[in-house]
Write a structure and sequence with these properties.
Helix content is 51%, strand content 20%. The protein is an alpha+beta fold.
């Protein structure tokens, strides 16, 4: 094999943090598949609910496949691919909240979506990944009988920019903790399942796509995440 051929087939060495980040996404999606499967087994409401749960399972499986394909590209090129398209953000948010319906019911958490049929030209899969991580955290770190509110606002009329606000009534974070979130493997609490890589991956994607994200929090009152997507 020539030197040129060897260069073509060479793989980029992936650091433990990068590898764990991709595995984190896969594990999250597989966990959703499990939860939704359990919901189907316990479902007795009728065919409509069964169909809805099956659609959510298919969406979660597609997410696993997309993450795997992206990981393969990253290993070969050393960079994350960006694939932009026009899409409606409302069905995406509905699907994500639907995936965590069982967890919300278990913790008696109300999930409120305040959004319309907004269309945007951006990377759909990466936005879905970010929102799934943030909404998942808002539920996992929430209190019993808590609330998660997801609001989508159009930044300017006839502009594809959107501002997405996720607010929860959870345990909140101190100023010292806020400074550390996004550090690989850092976790706010060890008694809640997680790997400490979700926010690190979120910040990396935002940097890649030049999106803005801010976190504000008050201990015992909750956390607010503001994501500005262009």
């Amino acid at each position: 094999m020539s030197l040129a051929d060897r260069k073509k087939t060479a793989m980029v060495e992936v650091s433990p943090v990068e590898y764990s980040s991709f595995m984190h996404e896969i594990k999250n999606s597989l966990n959703n598949i499990y939860l939704l499967s359990q919901a189907i087994l316990n479902d007795s409401a009728g065919d409509a609910d069964l169909k809805s749960n099956l659609e959510l399972i298919c969406d979660a499986v597609a997410c696993v496949k997309n993450t795997e394909a992206e990981f393969d590209i990253y290993r070969k090129t050393g960079s994350l691919p960006v694939q932009k398209e026009y899409f409606n953000i409302l069905p995406m948010i509905r699907n994500i909240t639907g995936e965590y319906k069982a967890l919300c019911e278990e913790k008696k958490i109300e999930c409120i979506v305040e959004a319309h049929n907004f269309y945007i030209f951006s990377d759909k899969e990466k936005l879905r990944r970010i929102l799934a991580n943030i909404i998942s955290n808002a539920i996992k770190y929430n209190k019993k009988d808590g609330r998660v509110r997801i609001t989508v606002k159009q930044a300017h009329y006839a502009d594809s920019s959107l501002t997405i606000i996720i607010e929860d009534t959870g345990i909140g974070m101190s100023a010292a903790t806020l400074e550390k979130i996004g550090t690989p493997f850092f976790r706010c609490r060890t008694d809640v399942a997680g790997s400490g890589l979700g926010v690190a991956q979120i910040k990396k994607i935002c940097k890649l796509l030049r999106w803005e994200i801010t976190f504000t929090s008050v201990v015992n009152e909750g956390t607010t995440v503001v994501l500005k997507v262009r």
